[in-house]
Amino acid sequence: MNAARPPALLPAGSADSKLVLPVVLGATFVQLLSVTIAQVAAPAIQRGLDAGPGEVQLVLAGYTLTYACLLITAARLGDRYGYRRLFAIGTAVFALASAACAFAPTPAALIAARLVQGAGSGLVAPQVLSIIQTAVPTGRRAHALGLYGATMGVASLAGPLLGGLLLGADLLGLGWRTVFLATVPVALAALAGARALPRSRPDRRLRIDAVGAILATTGFGMLILPLALGPNAGWPPWTLVSLGSSAFVLACFAAAQRRGEAPLIHPAALRSRTARTGILLVFVFNAGVPSFTFLLFLHLQQAAGYSALAAAALSTPFAAAAVVGSRCAPVLARRHGPRLLTASALVLAAVMAGLAPLLGTAPTLGAAPLLAAGGAAFGVFTASVFSLVLARTSAETTGSLSGLLPTAQQLGGSIGITLASLAYLAPAADSGGAFWHAMLYQAGVFTLTAVISLRLGRGSSAPTGA
């Protein structure tokens, strides 16, 4: 079986190795920022382009759609053609598409640009993990993975805050367009810094499973699109047909991976209990966090009457504490291992249950300590989960996990937002009751995360550099 192996590294030439992490983490930041920053600008986009509700939903969903659908295939392409090359191509696509989003004259043009923007992110994301795993020395790898997780967490939380600031400032009268322009300089800097990344010797013997790539892209697309559009559209028949069909297509993909001669996913990643547990853990955790921030801003603006900027300010303790938690995570992870994930998930579950009465229809300052505790736990979890999972799996699974873990992250986020929205919109006496329903969902998700993390702790441990 022609399984993927990490390409051998070549000298980086005159590149400065100290720039490797800033380059890849900068690209990661703007990719995750682009998921949430557009949510704040949705009403302004609708007014500015005279777009319908369905078109605005496609603007938001289109990015995640192509982003998530390409991750597994892009990981294999990185093994085949080199991580640095795919990183540079994807970053260039992302930067151009971001500029196209900013200057889109019509809703259709903006939707098309968002689809391309998501595709660029989908090409880049797996290469970041692969570069960290193959280019960073063993002794620094856990720290680098911690920074990677922290960057993802902070980026997702910074989106609403930065979006609110940009919309409030209305720089040069550009309105919502600055939300997309803001990512262009960082993307261009990452593209320029790609020369600092170590070159790898592509394995020309690797083949790309075209059938598997088509099945994966189609199956994930048929899953994500109805989840994104269904709730606001009233779940028309096509959404239910698409969801049912996605299960069949993804089952065909899984069967093809087990039987194919050149699978997109390394067989070891499918056999490893630790790898499977890690993928499930990332999936379930992300069914909670993006949906929490989404519903928090929705509730504060629609039920409590806050502006986008005021809502962002109220959530600042969560984001600020997340930064602190992520900085502490590497030391805590070395000391406590997977037990740290269990503890932080349980703290998040308790915080969700405690926030409901404090963030009903009239948010109070009493919510700040709980938001800070939740943010710290969130920062600890995101900054340690990838390093703890990858440290317990073999090197031959690196390429596959570089695609599977971000895919689990994106799918978990999409499914979680749908489920949490259903909980929020469930029959309730008032908006405070609706928020209580949503927080019960969140608490349940994080409790389940804690249970799954116990399974990771019982798994066999591999050397960090494995």
TrEMBL record:
Coiled coil: none
Key words, A-Z: Membrane, Transmembrane, Transmembrane helix
Protein name, as recorded: EmrB/QacA subfamily drug resistance transporter
Pfam family, one: MFS_1
One annotated GO molecular function: transmembrane transporter activity
Domain Major facilitator superfamily (MFS) profile: 20-461
Gene3D superfamilies according to UniProt: MFS general substrate transporter like domains, Multidrug resistance protein D
PANTHER family documented for this protein: ACTINORHODIN TRANSPORTER-RELATED, MAJOR FACILITATOR SUPERFAMILY MULTIDRUG TRANSPORTER MFSC
Organism: Streptomonospora salina
Membrane topology: Multi-pass membrane protein
Protein location: Cell membrane
Record-level GO cellular component terms: plasma membrane
Residue ranges crossing the lipid bilayer per the database entry: 20-44, 56-74, 86-105, 111-132, 144-167, 179-198, 210-229, 235-256, 277-300, 306-328, 340-360, 366-390, 411-429, 435-454
Keyword Transmembrane helix attached: yes
Superkingdom field: Bacteria
InterPro entries (alphabetical): MFS, MFS_dom, MFS_trans_sf
Keyword Cell division set for record: no
